[in-house]
C-alpha cells in the first residue's frame, strides 16, 4: 500500500470509514459522470445544448461566455491587458511563496509588480487607452482585490496586534476599539459604508474611486480578523524569551521583529491562510456596489435569456476556479506548516 494511503486504513475503524466514503464517492461519480462528461455538449451549439438538456451538461455556455465570465465588461480589444495583469500578479504570489527567496528586495519587487498590474489595467499612458474601474470585472478583479487586500492587510494586522499587546493604554485602547468595531459588523455593511456612505462625509466635489474605496474596506475588514490571529501567536511566545532579548540590550522593535514575530507566525500559519482564503472568496460580495468580479460576471453572462437555462454549468465552472485557487493556498499552507514544524524540532 502506498505510504500516503496508509493513514486512511490504519486500524479497523479508519479502514471501514475510508471504504464507506470511497463507495459513496463511487456512487456519486456513477450518477454524475454521464451528465458531466459522457453526454455533455462541448461546443457552442445552443440547439445541441437544448436537445441534451437533462441528459448532459452544456459546457458550450463557458465557451460562449468565457470572456465575460473571466474579464467582465473590460473592452474586448484590450483583453490582453487584464490577462497579462493576472499572470504577473499570480507570478508575484508564486515568487513570494518560496521561503528561500524571502527578502526585502523580493517583497518590494512583488509590490511593484502588483502596482504595474493595476496601472496596466487602468491605462492612460504609453499609448494605452484609459479604462475606468467600473469596467473591471471577472477573475481579473477577483485576483486584484484579493492580492491587494492581503498585501495591505497583513502589515496593518501586525501593527494592530502589536498595539493590542502594547503596555501603553491609549494605543491598546485605540487598536482594540478598531478591531472590535470592525469585527462586530458584517462585510456587506463595510462595503456599503465604503461605497455609499463614506463620500457623504467628504468635502463637496471630492469622491474617491469606488474600486479604491472597496479595496480599502476589504483591507480594513481583513486586517481586523488577521490581527486577532497574529495576537494569539504573539501571546504564545513565552515571557522569558522577551526578557532575555531585553537583557541583551535589544529595543522594542528589535525584540518584536527578531524574536517574537518569527515565532508567532510559525504558530498562526493555518488560521492566517484561512483568512487569506476567506478574503479571496469574500470578494464576491462586491457585486452589491456594482463591481462585477468572477461571480458577478457570471450573473452578467446568465442575463442572456438564451443561455440562462444552463446556469448550473456556469456555477460549476466558477466553483472550479475558486476551488483551484483556494486549494493551492491551502496546500501551500500545509507545506509551510510542515517546514516550520521541522524547524521547531
Helices and strands, in N-to-C order?
A: HHHHHHHHHHHHEHH
- For this structure, what is the CATH homologous superfamily of the largest domain? MetI-like
CATH architecture of the largest domain: Orthogonal Bundle
CATH topology heading of the largest domain: MetI-like fold
Uncertain parts: none
Write down the overall geometry.
Answer: globular
Report the C-alpha radius of gyration, rounded.
24 Å
The description of the largest β-sheet is: none
Distance between the termini: 29 Å
Overall average residue pLDDT: 86
Helix content: over 70%
Give a description of the structure.
The protein has two domains: 1-38, no CATH class; 39-74 and 131-344, MetI-like (MetI-like fold). 70% of the residues lie in helices and 1% in strands. It contains 14 helices and one strand. The radius of gyration is 24 Å and the shape is globular. The model has no long low-confidence stretch (mean pLDDT 86).
Topology:
Elements: H1 12-38, H2 46-51, H3 60-71, H4 80-96, H5 104-122, H6 138-164, H7 169-183, H8 187-197, H9 210-236, H10 239-247, H11 252-267, H12 269-282, E1 292-293, H13 294-301, H14 311-344
Helix pairs in contact: 3-6, 3-13, 4-5, 4-6, 5-6, 6-7, 6-9, 6-12, 6-13, 7-9, 8-9, 9-11, 9-12, 10-11, 12-14
Amino acid at each position: 500500500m502506498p505510504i500516503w494511503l496508509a493513514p486512511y486504513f490504519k486500524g479497523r475503524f479508519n479502514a471501514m470509514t475510508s471504504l464507506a466514503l470511497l463507495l459513496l464517492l463511487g456512487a456519486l461519480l456513477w450518477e454524475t459522470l454521464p451528465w458531466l462528461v459522457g453526454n455533455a455538449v462541448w461546443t457552442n451549439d445552443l440547439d445541441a445544448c437544448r436537445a441534451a438538456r437533462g441528459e448532459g451538461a452544456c459546457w458550450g455556455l463557458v465557451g460562449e461566455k468565457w470572456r465575460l465570465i473571466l474579464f467582465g465588461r473590460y473592452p474586448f480589444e484590450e483583453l490582453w491587458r487584464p490577462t497579462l495583469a493576472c499572470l504577473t500578479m499570480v507570478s508575484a504570489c508564486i515568487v513570494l511563496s518560496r521561503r528561500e527567496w524571502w527578502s526585502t528586495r523580493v517583497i518590494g519587487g512583488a509590490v511593484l509588480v502588483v502596482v504595474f498590474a493595476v496601472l496596466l489595467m487602468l491605462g492612460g499612458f504609453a499609448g494605452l487607452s484609459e479604462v475606468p474601474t467600473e469596467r473591471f470585472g471577472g477573475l481579473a478583479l477577483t485576483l486584484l482585490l484579493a492580492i491587494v487586500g492581503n498585501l495591505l492587510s497583513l502589515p496593518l494586522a501586525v501593527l494592530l496586534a502589536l498595539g493590542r499587546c502594547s503596555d501603553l493604554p491609549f494605543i491598546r485602547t485605540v487598536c482594540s476599539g478598531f478591531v472590535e468595531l470592525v469585527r462586530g459588523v458584517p462585510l456587506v455593511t463595510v462595503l456599503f459604508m465604503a461605497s455609499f456612505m463614506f463620500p457623504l462625509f467628504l468635502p463637496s466635489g471630492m469622491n474617491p474611486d469606488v474600486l479604491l474605496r472597496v479595496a480599502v474596506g476589504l483591507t480594513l475588514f481583513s486586517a481586523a480578523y488577521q490581527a486577532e490571529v497574529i495576537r494569539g501567536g504573539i501571546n504564545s511566545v513565552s515571557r522569558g524569551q522577551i526578557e532575555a532579548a531585553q537583557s541583551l540590550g535589544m529595543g522594542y522593535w528589535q525584540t518584536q521583529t527578531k524574536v517574537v514575530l518569527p515565532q508567532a507566525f510559525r504558530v498562526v500559519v493555518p488560521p492566517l491562510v484561512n483568512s487569506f482564503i476567506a478574503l479571496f472568496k469574500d470578494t464576491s460580495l462586491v457585486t452589491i456596489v456594482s463591481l462585477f468580479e468572477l461571480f458577478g460576471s457570471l450573473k452578467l453572462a446568465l442575463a442572456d435569456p438564451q443561455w440562462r437555462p444552463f446556469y448550473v454549468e456556469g456555477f460549476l465552472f466558477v466553483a472550479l476556479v475558486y476551488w483551484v485557487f483556494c486549494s493551492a493556498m491551502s496546500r501551500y499552507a500545509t507545506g509551510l506548516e510542515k517546514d516550520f514544524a521541522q524547524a521547531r524540532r
